[in-house]
Structures are given as structure tokens and as C-alpha cells.
Backbone:
């Protein structure tokens, strides 16, 4: 009986052990305590998009200490007040492929409510002068830490790979203008144009130790839209001399609900969300205008264009029906900067990497997931028309027992961007570094 069990255990364990890379695992485990303390320091000191100077400096110093050739302050924005905080770190290791690995660095205007010992207490005035709490509520501190771990790992294994490794610290992912800012600042003339581009993101739903992926289109396009409904202000007691923009804006919000439900094919995923509506100053004043901020998510470009045209048509129609004079017609403006195309995982690169990740992490720890309507600007490093194959995977960040409890109680776990979101540092970073290490080695191995 005992020998039988031993034989069974041997049969089960040996193929898995042989498939993993003990050299990678030992190096990652050795670095883990220092990576976790870096993570906690980053978590306690988050910086908003366009303002990532200290995070970028920390990353640059670490990468330089591992022997990378580091360029700082890469990035050019249309708004001249914003400095580029992009980091480009290159490690040349003979002839071979060029592989780009990107980590985003920015945090969000969220007041942290996790109560963790290393929680952020940072408050800052945002670009509009409003006092806000700042939190790494999307886990970009996990990404920066994982990039540091991957950088050190690969610098210590140069005999196993060849080519040019390019590590990117990207600013301003949350405002989806950071990747564009780096490309606009000549990223691909500063470095050889990569043959492949890789990135990871932590997941607020997936168990630690696992990663997930989506072949093909994985994340939706995102477009920020500003709408100004203009009317004619008046005393609150005299609506008859006004063209009330609050009533018109209310009609507009309800009317645009039919764009997705009635104008769009159910086979084409799309979202129209009004995230902000502001108008007026006091109980008894009808204001002159109301300002709305919307986000549009689609996969197809023609669906995005249709939604933008519909928003304009409906805004004008509501104003016309309300008797608003032509010179006070509403203004619908899609942002030129807060816009990013759908994120596309190159199918053959995905297949190759998934096989490598299954060998490295174990097949059960690599799971396929359906596409979502969230967005990412990482795909921009692949250039228009998916010229450079890109692959992004998700890293589980939640303990199995928390997932089980949430399922049992029917209470969803805090999502990314929630004030209560917290990844478990050690296993999340460990899996992030191992997975990215395996993914890079697959493309650059000798
Ligand atoms: Zn985010
Ligand atoms: Zn994110």
C-alpha cells in the first residue's frame, strides 16, 4: 500500500516538477522579501497620472543598479504642464529578438479604506485644484514591483537568453494617454522597434498563483466624451423665461440609454456610461449650462463612431425639442487624448506564451477568460494595425478563502479601483515575476 502510494506520488509530482524551472523559482523566492518591502513602500506613496516622478525615480534607480541602460523623463503630452515620467531601460545581450515588457506606474484619486498597515494616507490637490485621496487601487504598484523582480531575474540569467530586453515604466495608464505620450516622444527611435510586447495586470477576481488570458480582442476601446448642455439661466421661481439645462440634461441622459439597446446590434458589445453630471450652484437658480462626462466602450471602430454620432444627434434633438436657440446648441466633444483602441492579444503569440506559462506555472494555473469591457492603453505599443504582436495576461491577486467566502455569501469582492481592493503581496508578486520571467525567456531563450 505504502509503496503504491509512493509510486503514485512520484508519478504525479515528477512530471510537474520537471516541467517547472527551479532556477527561476529559487531566484524569485530569494528576492521576494525585498520586493514585498518595495511594494509596500510604493503602495504607501501613490502618485496620480501625469505626476509619477518619485515612482519613476525609484524604478529607474533599481533598473540601473541591475546593469540596465536607463533613460528617464520619456513622454510628451499635448498639455505642456505635464512632464513625461516614462522610463526606458535596455539590457543588450547579443544578437536576438527585441522584447518589450511594460509596467504602468500611476495611481487613482481614491481614498484608501483597506485599513492595511501599509495603506496610503496621501492626499493631494488634483489638476483641477480639488483635494483628493490617492491610492494604488488598480495595483500598478504590483506591476512596478513585478517589473523590478523580472529585471533582476533576467539580468542574473544572461547566459540563458539573447537579444535586447526593453523594460518600460509607463506613466498615465489610468488617463490612457501615457503609452501615446512615450511613442510621441520618439520611443521607437530611441530603442530598436520590438519584435514582441508583453504586459501583466493584477486581477481582483482571480486566485493567487493563477494567471488568466484572453486570445484576440481582450479589452475594449475607451473614449472619454464631454457634453455641455447649454440653456438659458433664470431665477428658480421664473422657469418660463429660462431654457432649463438641468431638465434638458436629464432628458439627454435617459434618451441616450436607447443607443446601445435600440441602435446597436446585440452581437456588438458596447457601453455608454455617464460618470459625472454637474450643473448649478444654488437651490433657486436655473443655471446656464450642465456639464456631463461619459465613457464609451466598444470593440469595433464603426460601433464607436456610431455611438459618437448618436450622442451628438440626441443632444441636438433634445435641445431643439426644448426650444434652445441654435447659438446655444449643445457641444459634444470626444477627447483627443483620453482615447485608446481595443487591446488585442496576438493569437499566435498568445498560443506560444500560454504553452510556456503552462509549463512554468502548471497547466491548472493558466486559465482562459472571456473578454471584458475594461480598457488598457498597453495595446498602443503594438502600433496601429497590430504591427507588433502584443500579449497581456492577468495575475491572480486574491486569497482562495476570500474568493470562497464571497461566493458563499453572494457578496462580490472589491473590484479594481475600489477603495477596498487589496492584492495579497507575496504570492501575487511571486507569480507576476515568475510568469513574466517565463514569458520573456520563451521569446529570448538561446
Ligand atoms: Zn485602472
Ligand atoms: Zn490598471
Residues:
Amino acid at each position: 500500500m505504502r509503496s503504491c502510494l509512493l509510486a503514485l506520488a512520484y508519478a504525479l509530482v515528477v512530471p510537474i516538477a520537471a516541467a517547472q524551472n527551479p532556477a527561476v523559482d529559487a531566484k524569485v523566492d530569494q528576492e521576494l522579501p525585498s520586493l514585498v518591502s518595495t511594494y509596500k513602500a510604493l503602495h504607501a506613496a501613490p502618485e496620480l497620472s501625469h505626476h509619477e516622478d518619485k515612482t519613476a525615480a525609484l524604478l529607474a534607480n533599481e533598473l540601473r543598479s541591475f546593469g540596465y541602460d536607463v533613460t528617464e523623463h520619456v513622454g510628451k503630452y499635448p498639455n505642456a504642464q505635464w512632464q513625461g515620467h516614462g522610463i526606458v531601460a535596455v539590457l543588450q545581450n547579443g544578437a536576438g529578438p527585441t522584447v518589450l515588457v511594460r509596467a504602468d506606474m500611476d495611481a487613482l484619486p481614491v481614498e484608501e479604506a483597506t485599513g492595511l498597515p501599509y495603506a496610503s494616507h496621501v492626499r493631494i490637490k488634483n489638476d483641477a485644484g480639488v483635494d483628493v485621496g490617492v491610492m494604488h487601487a488598480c495595483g500598478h504598484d504590483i506591476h512596478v514591483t513585478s517589473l523590478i523582480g523580472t529585471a533582476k531575474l533576467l539580468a542574473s540569467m544572461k547566459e540563458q537568453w539573447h537579444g535586447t530586453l526593453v523594460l518600460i515604466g509607463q506613466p498615465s495608464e489610468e488617463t490612457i494617454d501615457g503609452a501615446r505620450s512615450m511613442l510621441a516622444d520618439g520611443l521607437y527611435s530611441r530603442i530598436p522597434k520590438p519584435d514582441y510586447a508583453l504586459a501583466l495586470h493584477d486581477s481582483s477576481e482571480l486566485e493567487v498563483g493563477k494567471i488568466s488570458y484572453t486570445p484576440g480582442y481582450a479589452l475594449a476601446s475607451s473614449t472619454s466624451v464631454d457634453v455641455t448642455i447649454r440653456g438659458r439661466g433664470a431665477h428658480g421661481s421664473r422657469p418660463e423665461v429660462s431654457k432649463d439645462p438641468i431638465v434638458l440634461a436629464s432628458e439627454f441622459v435617459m434618451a441616450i440609454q436607447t443607443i446601445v439597446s435600440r441602435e446597436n446590434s446585440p452581437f456588438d458589445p458596447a457601453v455608454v456610461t455617464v460618470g459625472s453630471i454637474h450643473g448649478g450652484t444654488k437651490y433657486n437658480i436655473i443655471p446656464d449650462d450642465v456639464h456631463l462626462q461619459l465613457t464609451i466602450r466598444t470593440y469595433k471602430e464603426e460601433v464607436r463612431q456610431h455611438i459618437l454620432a448618436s450622442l451628438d444627434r440626441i443632444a441636438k434633438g433634445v435641445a431643439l425639442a426644448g426650444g434652445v436657440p441654435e447659438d446655444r446648441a449643445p457641444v459634444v466633444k470626444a477627447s483627443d487624448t483620453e482615447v485608446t483602441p481595443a487591446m488585442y492579444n496576438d493569437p499566435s503569440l498568445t498560443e506560444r506564451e500560454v504553452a510556456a506559462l503552462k509549463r512554468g506555472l502548471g497547466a491548472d494555473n493558466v486559465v482562459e477568460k472571456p473578454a471584458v469591457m475594461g480598457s488598457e492603453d498597453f495595446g498602443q505599443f503594438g502600433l496601429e494595425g497590430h504591427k507588433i504582436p502584443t500579449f497581456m495576461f492577468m495575475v491572480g491577486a486574491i486569497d482562495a478563502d476570500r474568493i470562497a467566502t464571497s461566493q458563499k455569501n453572494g457578496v462580490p469582492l472589491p473590484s479594481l479601483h475600489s477603495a477596498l481592493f487589496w492584492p495579497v503581496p507575496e504570492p501575487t508578486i511571486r507569480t507576476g515575476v515568475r510568469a513574466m520571467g517565463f514569458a520573456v525567456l520563451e521569446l529570448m531563450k538561446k
Q: What stands out?
A: Residues 138, 140, 173, 201 surround zinc ion (ligand 2) (CB under 6 Å).
